[in-house]
Predict the 3D structure of the following.
Amino acid sequence: MKEWNSRVGRVAEPMKTDFLQRTFSEPAEGQVLIRVVSSAVCGSDLHIFKGRHPAVPLPVTIGHEFSGDIVAVGPGVDGLCEGDRVTLEPCIVCGTCEACRRGNYGYCENISFSYRKGDGAMADYVMAQAEHVFRLPDDLSYHAGALIEPLSVATHAVRRADVRLGETVLVIGAGAIGLLIAAVCRKSGASQVIIADHSDARLKLALELGATAAVNSGKEPLEDVLHRLTGGKGVDKSFECVGLEATFVQAISSIRQNGLATIVGIFENPKISIPADLFVSREIRVQGAQGYCWDFPVAIELSRELNLEKLVTHVFPLDDLQKALETCLDRSAGSVKVLLEP
Ligand SMILES: [Zn+2]
Ligand SMILES: [Zn+2]
């Protein structure tokens, strides 16, 4: 019987990581064992690192954006082989609740995530259910493969917003999700994709990924730029990717009559004040978007056309997990996506 030894990175207490040692044996029925090659830090990992994630008590293993190679295949697995380059859709759903039976597994009443059950991907190996594993295109790098999960989040938001040919879009916030939303909007046929942020480096990256205009909203008023670029009408669709009152207000103030604002940011302080008259006077619409549902296959196709590697600003060996998370929190480091490699 073959065995695989793995370090599994964990947030032990706020601002402190450590590693568990785990030994995997041959995969059970329906499972595959994946050797991790690249594992990306997600914003949610940072909420956990700070000990401020409302749904995730410490200690907990982390990591859910990764790529790797299958090293062992359990009985009853079809369509996946040893040596396949893959990524994982990390949600675990029941398949039997009403939402699952309607196909809306993203709303599963019993939804969980593999990393919260001890199967974090800041590790040497991850055991996974084969039905959640996706093969990567041959020419896609492991770095890009580790970003399929956040690309799926962006894909989900853009599909929910139904961005169409010739539309104008505003994306507020050029973090990884905002950048990917801007890129996917452009692929969806939006003719103008305006992105706002306070970091010139991130705005430059946004333009390289497909945004058509970048606004440093810390230096010039966003309203003025939007007025100029949309002839005073406002944009068709906006995306809020920050999670603050000011940016929520921008998202609903910047859209035209009957426009649609999609809220993607996480609000650490959810009690905000907004100009509620806009809903009736301008017949605007507001919706949220979270996670993904049937979006991985679309994101994998899109990944062929996006230069995802441009998002990777730092790569650390897995042993430097603590340093990697600190780098993500250090604004002066200018990180967008930070990868760990075993
Ligand atoms: Zn993520
Ligand atoms: Zn369910």
The longest helix spans residues 148-161. The chain has a mean pLDDT of 96. The first strand starts at residue 3 and ends at 13. DSSP finds eleven helices and 18 strands in the chain.
